[in-house]
Predict the structure of ADP-ribosylation/crystallin J1.
Amino acid sequence: MISRTAPATTTLWRPVGPAELALLEELDWRAWPPRLPEQPIFYPVLNEDYAIRIARDWNVRHDGAGYVTRFEVDTEFLTRYPVRQAGGRTILELWVPAEELALFNAHIVGTIQVVRSFS
């Protein structure tokens, strides 16, 4: 009998507005939608507090509502993306080139979950 163990995963978060949330639902909560031409980078964040700040302070102001999503990605795969510090020491992101998003999506383990909402 072959025994398979699940890959080690890393928890990531992403703040989204209502439009991106609707696209996630269309994709059965299993993948991120393709980036728009003006979005060359997909950037999930490494901590929930940072995602909350963006969803609450940016998405609500610009989109009327903000949501924090949480999802798991194969840790070994993520080593290809260096952690980027986008401000203070806890403002950490991964920068995934838009052309690699399908590959990134293939390494999501489980589903994307909404864990907070703001309006």
